[in-house]
Design brief:
single chain; 279 residues; alpha/beta; Rossmann fold; 8-stranded mixed beta sheet; Alpha/beta hydrolase
Length: 279
């Protein structure tokens, strides 16, 4: 029953939004915006509590949002970890173990509307604003981000001239917002009219449309060393996106895997990250 409901709900939302757009494109796009940016998962589960509670560091206020930060103390460089959509800082527990063995100082935080952090909506500009605030507190030299966290890692450093970050790792990161929007349209069967209204809404709210928000466009301006890891069979974020970013990022490298999926928790991935950090 739950699987059937999960399949039907997007279609029901789509019919509703398409119908509403015939009356008011503006109202339909505003509601689509909230549907698109409202996570349904990602809060801390019972099996994750012990690991995260032991590392709680502080609560950080960013406007109306309260972020939960975590810290695993070490004597080497500080690393900031950014999780992805409908996840939380627990997703890093395997990598954190390896980083602790190397004595790195590790920081993470739950994104808005995820984990122990407050908020209802989640999007990259907001995540990037939070990331910059956390960077200013903890001064990490390295950032590692998975999926949307990888996109945020790169975007947060775009035009951040005085950033202390010297290396960035993006794992299975989407390359542009328009591709993500295309997946959203396909899942909900939204009309082009709704999507155009949604694009206009983004432009009004953030001063860029979905075509302009592209890591391929931002990458040439990144002075940091970069490592991109992406699976060619990733069904969530296409591999070609990372290939395009790497081609435009002057000081970066791309590791291609096959059969590891989108989550990328495997030792092979973590070993590539450690090698890059030590180089």
């Amino acid at each position: 029953m739950k699987n059937l409901l999960d399949k039907c709900l997007p279609l029901i939302y789509g019919v509703y939004l398409n119908s509403l757009s015939l009356i008011s494109t503006k109202k339909a796009s505003e509601k689509a915006f909230r549907v698109l940016l409202t996570p349904r998962k990602g809060k801390v589960g019972p099996s994750q509590e012990t690991f995260l509670n032991a590392a709680k560091e502080r609560r950080i206020q960013i406007g109306a949002i309260t972020l939960q930060a975590y810290k695993w103390n070490g004597e080497k460089e500080t690393i900031l970890l950014l999780h992805g959509w409908e996840s939380n800082s627990f997703r890093w527990h395997r990598l954190i173990g390896k980083l602790q063995e190397e004595n790195y100082n590790i920081v993470a935080f739950d994104a808005p509307a995820h984990g122990y952090s407050s908020g209802k909506l989640f999007h990259v500009p907001l995540f990037a604003e939070c990331t910059r605030a956390v960077i200013e507190i903890f001064k990490p030299k390295y950032i590692i981000g998975h999926s949307v966290g990888g996109m945020t890692a790169l975007f947060s450093q775009y035009n951040y001239v005085e950033s202390p970050v010297v290396k960035i790792v993006g794992i299975g990161a989407p390359s542009n917002l328009s591709a993500f929007m295309g997946q959203f349209q396909k899942k909900l069967h939204l009309s082009n009219k709704v999507m155009q209204g949604l694009d206009d809404h983004f432009a009004d709210k953030y001063n860029f449309d979905t075509e302009e928000f592209s890591l391929e466009r931002f990458a040439p301006h990144l002075p940091q060393q970069g490592l991109l890891i992406h699976d060619v069979l990733d069904s969530i974020t296409p591999f070609q996106g990372s290939a395009n970013i790497q081609r435009n990022w002057p000081n970066s490298q791309l590791v291609k895997t096959e059969g590891l999926g989108h989550s990328m928790h495997q030792d092979m991935v973590n070993d590539h990250i450690l090698k890059f950090l030590k180089a």
